[in-house]
């Protein structure tokens, strides 16, 4: 009797397993969109683990792949969706072998809606990167259209998701996203955040080098935007409190503003920052998820709709919570050098914002 019961159970397990090993209709990868179940729960049906659903759009790229790795390791993430127009089957198969949460891959525009449906957080590193000699604004012509298409999908399929925009030029792609959401009637400025964390990460590193401190103990607010002079580190507000000579201020400000170009030149045509960016994006996404969970006191710099200056978008410290950006913190006292930097930053930012807005409303 017991033997018969065990044989029956084993036969049922084999049948379930075999059904998942059969070739899929449009995909030979069981964890891809056409597959029956999420990878990691193939053999026995289970309810979804508690946690957040996160999609990465541009997941097969230089940032997307290490970001997928880091998000798959995040215990707050229960389901990870990887969307790209190329190569997601391989990336998803690879990542799916990690013994962490579930992952599912989506390939090409027809699968965008399924990639987005039900997501709590959408991270967008889709788009072309710079080559030496280019500015971030030189990417506008290609990346603006990519940002528009992806945000139209978000407005339709997960209008309540928090959106983290990485694609450059961030100073324009965030206003583009806002205009797309406004047109769709889904715009919530608290849920749209441009990722400027890499500027803070770099500032912490370079300031740590100058002060001889562990960069993990340094926190430098970086305000403005994410390109050249719009990146404005507030070296007068570094934590722990410290002071710099004017040579140090000039050196640090210039290195932080040109950190992206430093990497573009070192990569000599093979792209821009990917690994440090994936680290920064994962750090920022984790802060957004902790905010969504209801953790208190989460403050990060981000480029958001803001009244902290007379511009409609500006990067500064924001407090994150259950509804996204719950408070935009004041800039604090700026010294003369920083006030001059702010004026330069605002001039360039105003043009980049207008360019993004006009792209959607032309
Ligand atoms: N915010 C920031 O601090 C930073 C932003 N970036 C920006 O991030 C973007 C991506 O950089 P990388 O990953 O190095 O580029 P990459 O070229 O290595 O990867 C981009 C990925 O986007 C995908 N893609 C293109 N069109 C798409 C679409 N319509 N839908 C979905 N995916 C699409 C590509 O297939 C590719 O896999 C660039 O615009 C870059 O300038 C890069 C570093 C820092
Ligand atoms: O410099 C680039 O083009 C990529 C980027 O935004 C950065 O590394 O900060």
UniProtKB/TrEMBL annotation:
| Coiled-coil segments | none
Its predominant location is other
Task: State the oligomer form and interacting partners.
Answer: Homodimer.
Residue positions of the active site: 226 (proton acceptor)
Q: Where is this region: Disordered?
A: 1-35
Protein keywords: Glyoxylate bypass, NAD, Oxidoreductase, Peroxisome, Tricarboxylic acid cycle
InterPro entries in the record, alphabetically?
A: L-lactate/malate_DH, Lactate/malate_DH_C, Lactate/malate_DH_N, Lactate_DH/Glyco_Ohase_4_C, Malate_DH_AS, Malate_DH_type1, NAD(P)-bd_dom_sf
Q: Which family does it belong to?
A: Belongs to the LDH/MDH superfamily. MDH type 1 family.
Q: Name one GO cellular component term.
A: peroxisome
GO-annotated biological processes: glyoxylate cycle; malate metabolic process; tricarboxylic acid cycle
Give me the reactions it catalyses: (S)-malate + NAD(+) = oxaloacetate + NADH + H(+)
Give a yes or no for keyword Acyltransferase in this entry.
no
Q: Where is the composition biased (Low complexity)?
A: 1-15
GO molecular-function terms, A-Z: L-malate dehydrogenase (NAD+) activity
What this protein is called in its record is Malate dehydrogenase
Annotated EC: 1.1.1.37
Residues bound to NAD(+): 58-64, 84, 143, 166-168, 277
**Which of the seven top EC classes does this enzyme belong to?**
oxidoreductase
